[in-house]
Amino acid sequence: MAEAGVEPLGWERALMAAEKVKERLRRVARALDAAGVPYAVAGGNAVAEWVGRVDDDAVRNTRDVDLLLRRADFPAAQAALEAAGFIYHHLLDIDTFIDGPQGKPSAGIHILFAGEKVRREDEYALPDIDESERAVEFQVANLVALVRMKLIAYRRKDQVHLLDLIAVGLLDAAWPTRFPPPLDTRLQQLLDDPNG
To answer: Which of 32, 8, 34 is CA-nearest to residue 20?
Structure first.
């Protein structure tokens, strides 16, 4: 790392930023676990957990933490996260917790509600918390639930995450049959043309 008083280089800053996200995730998990609040890590950190189980060199960093919660558990989660130093904000229809007064919403804790649609136009609702399993440090969406969430959202970054799962062999030709239309077609297209 950079010497005291010397501005870190770009790659050093990237490493420090990735470590901050990991530490933020650990703090969130410890706070929710201690409070007995059911949750599942979703999004890029869940993809990193699954990819890392196969090939740690293929793990992609992310700048935020996506959490799946039941809406009924939100007040208990809010109390636990605020006690851990996070500050609640409702921004652009997203329930977010930023890391202290200087925290950025883009690097915050973004809440997704189990069994609900993220956007009105989504074909399907998100999975329930029961569709998760314990990783070493946190509860994580199981692979089927995670893939379903990524296929529902299907933004460019979701497609990249799915391609990461395909690249390490976690998803193959048998997987599209696990999902209803149009999710099955979306996954099949990525499997057929991963470089498209």
So the answer is: 8
